[in-house]
Amino acid sequence: MTEAPLLEVEHVVHHYTSASRLRPSRSRVTVHAVDDVSFSLARGETLGVVGESGCGKSTLARCLVRLLTPTSGTIRCEGVDITRMSARQLRPLRGDIQMVFQDPRSSLNPRRRIRDSVGAAVRVAGVEDVDARVSELLDVVGLDPRIGGRFPHEVSGGQRQRVGVARALGADPKLIVLDEPVSALDVSIQAQLINLLDDLQDAFGLSYIFVAHDLAVVRHVSRRIAVMYLGKLVEVAASDDLFAAPHHPYTSALIGAIPVPEARHGRSRRRRDVLAGEPPSPISPPSGCRFHPRCPRATAVCAREEPPLVDSGGGHLFACHHPLHLETAAKEVEAGHERV
């Protein structure tokens, strides 16, 4: 019997509505941050969510932990619908889904010592000896427990992010949503944190949603990858399948933008041309396929009709009228390596 998913997201939409800067008293504008996003997450799985800045990744992450209430759609954790729960109803469930933010400096209270910030999460889990548990968690994430007596500004960025992970673990979660957790860190510190997350997942059976713009990092940590563009999912596939044969032109462009080391000269070159242009405004997204103004394969149908998210087989989902099919994509990837 197949185990039920830990998290189920169905047709989630989140729109921001605000006054126009040009005519604040006369009109309001709607920002289409997340539009009709659906996926599921298994226990112990890591799902990477990638896309350019402004594609809706962080908004989606905040909806999943209910820092934001979706405009429409459904979010279920272990079969329980949390989409419209009030703050009081959510309180007993808060510990199940925790979040690690991009900027640990702003996510930690600067006036509270580290032990107090982590201890607040430990109390959510109902632990009696809070001090002992805080020391244990700091040790688990590779920090000297004595660091608990310091304030956030007294430790390094990498240490602050480890504190953020310890705080998330303090609530004894089943799922941790990580919103760009390594983007503000040096490369060497990034690798250490990613290895830590891998170890914690094995030790505690955690599930992760790993939000990032760096596809190379996401590939390293994720079993599956979901690609977002202007609020929409355009492709979802197993990590290896996505890199071996991307079906959507946007995914192919993201992969082509990853620097490839050139051993002979010690320099970095790219497999293919970098995607040109900027994403359209989420205030007035294009008709049809939202990627069509930048897509080299676009035709009239792309501007007219929005492509559905369909399965090409084996759970490889894509939304494109003119996909790069498995054989074609594999040939393009091979040709790209030859050009390098």
Please render the helix and strand layout as text.
Layout: E1 7-19, E2 28-41, E3 46-50, H1 57-64, E4 72-77, E5 80-81, H2 87-90, E6 97-100, H3 104-107, H4 114-124, H5 130-140, H6 157-170, E7 175-179, H7 187-204, E8 207-212, H8 215-221, E9 224-229, E10 232-238, H9 239-244, H10 249-256, E11 259-262, E12 267-270, H11 300-304, E13 310-311, E14 317-318, H12 326-339
Parallel strand pairs: 3-8, 3-9, 6-7, 7-8
Antiparallel strand pairs: 1-2, 1-4, 4-5, 9-10, 10-14, 11-12, 13-14
Helix pairs in contact: 4-5, 4-6, 5-6
Q: Describe it for me?
A:
With 340 residues, the protein is of the alpha/beta class. The chain has a domain of 101 residues. The chain contains 12 helices and 14 strands. Helix 7 links the parallel strand 7 and strand 8. The N and C termini lie far apart (47 Å).
Total helices: the number is 12
Round the mean pLDDT to the nearest integer and report it: 87
Class by SSE composition = alpha/beta
Uncertain stretches of 5 or more adjacent residues: 336-340
By DSSP, the count of extended strands is 14
Summarize the biggest pleated sheet: 8 strands, mixed
Order of helices and strands: EEEHEEHEHHHHEHEHEEHHEEHEEH
Could you estimate the helical fraction of the residues in percent?
25-40%
How are the strands of the biggest sheet laid out side by side?
6-7-8-3-9-10-14-13
